[in-house]
Each structure stands twice: as structure tokens, then as C-alpha cells.
Amino acid sequence: MTGEEQPQTTVPPVRSVPVPVQLAPGADWRIEWCEACKAFTRLAGSMLLLTTSGVSTVGAWAWCEICDDPADQEDRRV
Ligand SMILES: [Zn+2]
User: How many domains does the chain have?
Assistant: First the structure.
């Protein structure tokens, strides 16, 4: 025992890193016709899944600024 033992290799600390995955709306969104509102108030596009291995389209999203906004519906009683 010399007291000068040194690690032979540098071992990085092992961590369980969660895979960074992120959902993001695609850049191909567009304004669509909403049947309920009878207006072009609907936004639609593709939903992208961003991972370390790349980007993949996992679905589509759609959102109407009138139908899908409950607060707006409450206020707009005429
Ligand atoms: Zn609508």
C-alpha cells in the first residue's frame, strides 16, 4: 500500500439521463375553414416529435380560435 493509487481510466459518472423528447408544432401550419364558426378561424398543422435521433411527424393538430377558446365563448354573448 503506497497510498498513491490512481484510477487507471477516467470513468464518467453514470447517470440515467432521460431521453430528451419534445413535441412541437410543425412549421407547415395553415389557416383552415371552421365548419362551426363558418370562418377561417382554424389553425392546423402537423405535430412533430423531436428526439436526439431526428424529427418525425407523429400526428396533426388543429385549433380554432373561437371553438377551442372557452373564455372567448363566455364573453361573446350577443
Ligand atoms: Zn370554430
Answer: 1
